[in-house]
Design the sequence.
C-alpha cells in the first residue's frame, strides 16, 4: 500500500504547479485588486474576499519565472485572472495564477526532490516534483512561499531612482 | 475551593484596593473625617473576613494587622500622621501584591510580611498594647463569625443570618459594628447604631444594590467580537448605501436609510459598552504624586477635571503607562522644591492638574504643572552632547522646537538618575506608545511657568472618521486625527505659493513654509518630478500633522469623508512604514490607511538620501524671516509695513470724535481713551501739529479716518494712516550700508521697497520725545 495525496494543480506560464488540497481554501476569479505602492513586485495587491482583506501574491514574480526564461502562456493573456486562496495561520493569501488545473491523486512516494541546480533562493519554495506523463508537476511549499517579509522599504528601488538629475529637480 | 467565589473576591478586592489608595490620600488631607476612616476600616475588615473564609491565610493576617491599627484610628486613640499613612499605603500595596499572586495562581505567597505587620503593630500606641491582646482574640472570633456570615450572604438570607448571629453570639458594640460593615446590605441595623451616618450609608447601599441589579460583567473578548461584527455591518451598510444611491427605487432607498440609522445607533451603542471613564487610570495619580512628594519633600496638589470623560477600554489601558510616566516626570523634574518655588515667587505648593475633554470626536488629555518648565538651554546642550542634533541645527531652532527635543530617542535631562524617572527611556517611549494607539502628544512649556502636555486620542480604534483622497488612481484613507486642513491652489496661485527650497517643494501658508510631498511618489518611495506634478490647473494639498511636524501631501483629488473600519495590515506590508492599516470602502474595494507620521519619517529619509536637510531645519530659518505685515500708506503716498502681530483691529473713526488732551490727539474708543499717532509724524520724525488742526484744514467734514489699532508695551495706540493697502508676507532684512542696530528693516512688496517699522520702539521714541 502506498500513501496517496491529492494535489490541486494550476498553470503558470508553461509550468504545471501544485499545492496540497488541504491547504487550498478556495479558487476565486477576477477580483478588484488594490495596488500597494511601495511594495515589491511580488505583492500584486489587496483584495476584498467577503470582507476579509487578503494579500495577493504574484506567483510569477515570487518564483522569478521571468529569470528562468519561462514564456507566458498565450492563453493566459486572454483568460480572466484566477487565484488560489491558501490559508496560513489566521490570515488568507491569494496566489495569482494563469489557469486552474485538475485535482490529481498521486502516490506520495513518487515525489522527486528538487535538484540542486535550481536557483538557490527558489529551491526552498519547491517541495519536490512528480513525473507525470509528458511533463513535470512541481509541488510548492506554501509556508515558505508566503514566508517573505518586507524588511527594508527601499530594497526594491527601481533603476530610475538611482540616477537623478538635480537640475531637473530644481525646476 | 469555590472558584467562582474566589473570582468574585479577586475582582472586588482589586477594586477595593484601588479605592483604598484614594481614600488613604484623602484621609491624609482631612485627617479627622470619620466617614473616610470607617470606609477604609470596613474595606480592610471585609477583606480580612473574606480571605479567612477562603483560607488565604497570609492575606488575612496582613489585613488583620492593618485592621487593628485602623480601629485605633477610628476610635480616636491614634492620630493620623504621614508615617501612619505611609505604612497604610504600604499595607495596601502588600494587599494588592497578595491578591495579584492569588490571581496568578501562585496562591499564598512565600513573601514575608512580618516586617510590615510588626510595623503596623508598633505604630499602635504602646499604652494600647495590653488592650491589643483581647481585641485580637475578639477579632479572631469575629473572623469565624464572618465566615458564617458570608456563607449566609451567599444564600441570600442576609437578615436571617444577621439575627442568627446576633442571637448566637452577641458581640460587643464595636464588633457588632464591624460585623455590620462586613455585610453591606444592612441599612436598617446600622441605622439604629449610628443614626447620624445612617442616611448617607443607606443611600450609598441602595445605590450599590441598584447598580448590582442593573449591571452585568461581560467578558471583553465578547465585546471585541461584537465590535468586529458591527464593523462588518458598517462596511456592508456603506456598500448598500452606495448601491442605493446609484440605482435604487424609493422603497429600497427608504429601507437602506433605515438600516443606515440603525447601524449607526448600534455602532454607537456598542462603542459605549466599551467606554471607560478616564478616572480608572487617573485614580492612581494621587497615590503616585503623594509618594513622590514625600520622597522628594515637595508639596504637590493634584487637581482633576473631567474624570468622567470616556474612551475605549483598550485605549484607557494603553494610556496607563504613558500617563504614569508623564505624571512622574512632572512631579520629579517639573515641580520644584518648596524653597525654590518660594524663591521664584510661587506658592510653596505646586499644582499638577489633569484635564480631559471631548472635542471634535476626539479625546484631549492635558497634564499640566506649574513647575519650572523645560529648560531649553539645557535640553539643547544635552541633545548636542548626545549627538541628537548639531549645534548649527540648535542655533536655527525655535524655543518650541527645542522643547520638542525631549521626545527624541535616548533623551533624558535629569542630571541625577533618580529612582523615579530619568532612566533615559523618557519621553520618546511615551510618545511611541501613544502613537501606537493612534494618538498624538504635544508639549507646551514656558520656562519658570510650567509645562503642559496635551494628548490627543481617537475615541476608539475600531471605527474612525477618515478623509478619502486619491493618488495615482487609488483611494487612500487619512485618519481625521492627523488632518489639519485642505488647500486647493489654482492657476497663478500655484506659482506664487509653491516654491522650491533646494529642490524640495514648499508651500507658503500664512507666513509659514510648509514642506510638500507628492503622495503617490512618497508611497512608492520615489523622488518626484515636482515640476511636472505641479504644472497643472489646480493642486490639492492635504495638510497633515504628525510628531509636531506639519507637512502637505499633494494629492490628485479629495473625495469625501467616510467612517472607516480599521483592519490590521498583513504582516508582510507592515515594514513599508507608510500604511497604518487597511479598510474596505463603500464601493467594496480595499483601501489603505495612511500613517501620517510614517510618511513624515520616510520623507525625511528620502531627503537625507538626497543629501538634503530635513524639512524642519530647512524651513525654520526662512520661517523666522518671513513675516506677516500690514502695508499702509502715509500722507504723501509713502508706504510702510507694520508687523501684523501687533495689529489688534482696523477701524474707521469719524474725525469729529478726535479730541485733544494735554497736547495729544486722542479718541474715545471702547470705553477707553486711545491715543492717536499720525503715521506721517512717525516716519518723518517730525512732530507735526495737532491732528485736529490738520484735519480742520480739510474741507470735507464727513471723512472717516482709517486707524490701525496697535498693541504696544505702553498699551494700545491708534495709528492714523491715509490708506490701508494690503496684508502680505514679506521676507524682511536689514538695509545694508547702515550700521547695526539703527539699520531699518526693509522688504520688497510688489516691486517697491518699503520699510518694516518696529512699532514698539518707534512709538516708544515718539511718546518719549
Sequence:
Amino acid at each position: 500500500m502506498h500513501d496517496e495525496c491529492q494535489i490541486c494543480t494550476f498553470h503558470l506560464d508553461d509550468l504545471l504547479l501544485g499545492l496540497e488540497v488541504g491547504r487550498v481554501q478556495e479558487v476565486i476569479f477576477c477580483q478588484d485588486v488594490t495596488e500597494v505602492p511601495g511594495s515589491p513586485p511580488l505583492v500584486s495587491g489587496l483584495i476584498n474576499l467577503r470582507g476579509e482583506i487578503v494579500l495577493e501574491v504574484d506567483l510569477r514574480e515570487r518564483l522569478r519565472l521571468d529569470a528562468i526564461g519561462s514564456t507566458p502562456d498565450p492563453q493566459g493573456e486572454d483568460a480572466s485572472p484566477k487565484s488560489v486562496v491558501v490559508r496560513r495561520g489566521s490570515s488568507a493569501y491569494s496566489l495569482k495564477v494563469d489557469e486552474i488545473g485538475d485535482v490529481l491523486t498521486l502516490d506520495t512516494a513518487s515525489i522527486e526532490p528538487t535538484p540542486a541546480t535550481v536557483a538557490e533562493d527558489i529551491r526552498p519554495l519547491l517541495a519536490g516534483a512528480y513525473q507525470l506523463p509528458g511533463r513535470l508537476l512541481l509541488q510548492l511549499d506554501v509556508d515558505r512561499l508566503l514566508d517573505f517579509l518586507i524588511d527594508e522599504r527601499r530594497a526594491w528601488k527601481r533603476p530610475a531612482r538611482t540616477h537623478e538629475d538635480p537640475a531637473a529637480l530644481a525646476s | 475551593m469555590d472558584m467562582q467565589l474566589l473570582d468574585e473576591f479577586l475582582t472586588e478586592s482589586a477594586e477595593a484596593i484601588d479605592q483604598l489608595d484614594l481614600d488613604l490620600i484623602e484621609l491624609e488631607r482631612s485627617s479627622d473625617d470619620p466617614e473616610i476612616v470607617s470606609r477604609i476600616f470596613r474595606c480592610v475588615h471585609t477583606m480580612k473576613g473574606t480571605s479567612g473564609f477562603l483560607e488565604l491565610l497570609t492575606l488575612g493576617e496582613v489585613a488583620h494587622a492593618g485592621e487593628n491599627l485602623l480601629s485605633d484610628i477610628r476610635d480616636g486613640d491614634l492620630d493620623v500622621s504621614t508615617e501612619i499613612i505611609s505604612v497604610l499605603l504600604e499595607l495596601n500595596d502588600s494587599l494588592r501584591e497578595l491578591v495579584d499572586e492569588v490571581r496568578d495562581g501562585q496562591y499564598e505567597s512565600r513573601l514575608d510580611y512580618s516586617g510590615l505587620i510588626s510595623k503596623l503593630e508598633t505604630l499602635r500606641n504602646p499604652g494600647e498594647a495590653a488592650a491589643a491582646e483581647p481585641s485580637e482574640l475578639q477579632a479572631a472570633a469575629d473572623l469565624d463569625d464572618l465566615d458564617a456570615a458570608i456563607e449566609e450572604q451567599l444564600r441570600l438570607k442576609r437578615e436571617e443570618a444577621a439575627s442568627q448571629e446576633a442571637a448566637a453570639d452577641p458581640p460587643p458594640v464595636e464588633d457588632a459594628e464591624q460585623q455590620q460593615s462586613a455585610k453591606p446590605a444592612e441599612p436598617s441595623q446600622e441605622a439604629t447604631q449610628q443614626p447620624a451616618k445612617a442616611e448617607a450609608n443607606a443611600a450609598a447601599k441602595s445605590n450599590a444594590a441598584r447598580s448590582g441589579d442593573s449591571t452585568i460583567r461581560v467578558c471583553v473578548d465578547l465585546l471585541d467580537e461584537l465590535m468586529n461584527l458591527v464593523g462588518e455591518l458598517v462596511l456592508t451598510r456603506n456598500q448598500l448605501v452606495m448601491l442605493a444611491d446609484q440605482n435604487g427605487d424609493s422603497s429600497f432607498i427608504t429601507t437602506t436609510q433605515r438600516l443606515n440609522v440603525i447601524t449607526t445607533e448600534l455602532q454607537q451603542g456598542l462603542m459605549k459598552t466599551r467606554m471607560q471613564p478616564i478616572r480608572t487610570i487617573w485614580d492612581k495619580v494621587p497615590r503616585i504624586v503623594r509618594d513622590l512628594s514625600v520622597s522628594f519633600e515637595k508639596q504637590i496638589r493634584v487637581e482633576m477635571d473631567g474624570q468622567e470623560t470616556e474612551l475605549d477600554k483598550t485605549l484607557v489601558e494603553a494610556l496607563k503607562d504613558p500617563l504614569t510616566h508623564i505624571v512622574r516626570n512632572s512631579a520629579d523634574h517639573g515641580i520644584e522644591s518648596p524653597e525654590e518655588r518660594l524663591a521664584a515667587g510661587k506658592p510653596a505648593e505646586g499644582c499638577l492638574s489633569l484635564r480631559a475633554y471631548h472635542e471634535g470626536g476626539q479625546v484631549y488629555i492635558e497634564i499640566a504643572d506649574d513647575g519650572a518648565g523645560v529648560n531649553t538651554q539645557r535640553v539643547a546642550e544635552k541633545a548636542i552632547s548626545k549627538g541628537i542634533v548639531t549645534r548649527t541645527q540648535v542655533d536655527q531652532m525655535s524655543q518650541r522646537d527645542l522643547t520638542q527635543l525631549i521626545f527624541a530617542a535616548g533623551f533624558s535631562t535629569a542630571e541625577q538618575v533618580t529612582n523615579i524617572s530619568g532612566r533615559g527611556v523618557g519621553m520618546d517611549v511615551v510618545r511611541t506608545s501613544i502613537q501606537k494607539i493612534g494618538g498624538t502628544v504635544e508639549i507646551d512649556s514656558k520656562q519658570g511657568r510650567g509645562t503642559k502636555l496635551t494628548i490627543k486620542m481617537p475615541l476608539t480604534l475600531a471605527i474612525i472618521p477618515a478623509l478619502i483622497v486619491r493618488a495615482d488612481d487609488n483611494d487612500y484613507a487619512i485618519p481625521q486625527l492627523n488632518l489639519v486642513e485642505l488647500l486647493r491652489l489654482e492657476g497663478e496661485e500655484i506659482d506664487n505659493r509653491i516654491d522650491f527650497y533646494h529642490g524640495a517643494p514648499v508651500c507658503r501658508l500664512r507666513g509659514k513654509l510648509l514642506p510638500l510631498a507628492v503622495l503617490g511618489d512618497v508611497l512608492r518611495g520615489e523622488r518626484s518630478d515636482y515640476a511636472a506634478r505641479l504644472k497643472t490647473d489646480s493642486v490639492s494639498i492635504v495638510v497633515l500633522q504628525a510628531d509636531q511636524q506639519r507637512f502637505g501631501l499633494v494629492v490628485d483629488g479629495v473625495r469625501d469623508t467616510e467612517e472607516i473600519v480599521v483592519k490590521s495590515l498583513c504582516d508582510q506590508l507592515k515594514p513599508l512604514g507608510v500604511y497604518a492599516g487597511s479598510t474596505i470602502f463603500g464601493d467594496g474595494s480595499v483601501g489603505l490607511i495612511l500613517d501620517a507620521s510614517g510618511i513624515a519619517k520616510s520623507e525625511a529619509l528620502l531627503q537625507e538620501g538626497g543629501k538634503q536637510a530635513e524639512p524642519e531645519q530647512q524651513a525654520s530659518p526662512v520661517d523666522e524671516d518671513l513675516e506677516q505685515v500690514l502695508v499702509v500708506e502715509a500722507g504723501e503716498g509713502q508706504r510702510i509695513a507694520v508687523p501684523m502681530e501687533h495689529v489688534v483691529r482696523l477701524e474707521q473713526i469719524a474725525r469729529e470724535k478726535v479730541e485733544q488732551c494735554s497736547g495729544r490727539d486722542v479718541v474715545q474708543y471702547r470705553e477707553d481713551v486711545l491715543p492717536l499717532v499720525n503715521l506721517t509724524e512717525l516716519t518723518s520724525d517730525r512732530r507735526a501739529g495737532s491732528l485736529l488742526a490738520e484735519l480742520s484744514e480739510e474741507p470735507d467734514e464727513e471723512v472717516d479716518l482709517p486707524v490701525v489699532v496697535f498693541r504696544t508695551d505702553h498699551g494700545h495706540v491708534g495709528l492714523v494712516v491715509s490708506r490701508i493697502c494690503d496684508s502680505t508676507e514679506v521676507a524682511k532684512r536689514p538695509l545694508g550700508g547702515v550700521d547695526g542696530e539703527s539699520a531699518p528693516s526693509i522688504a520688497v512688496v510688489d516691486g517697491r521697497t518699503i520699510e518694516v517699522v518696529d512699532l514698539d520702539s518707534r512709538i516708544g521714541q515718539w511718546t518719549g520725545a
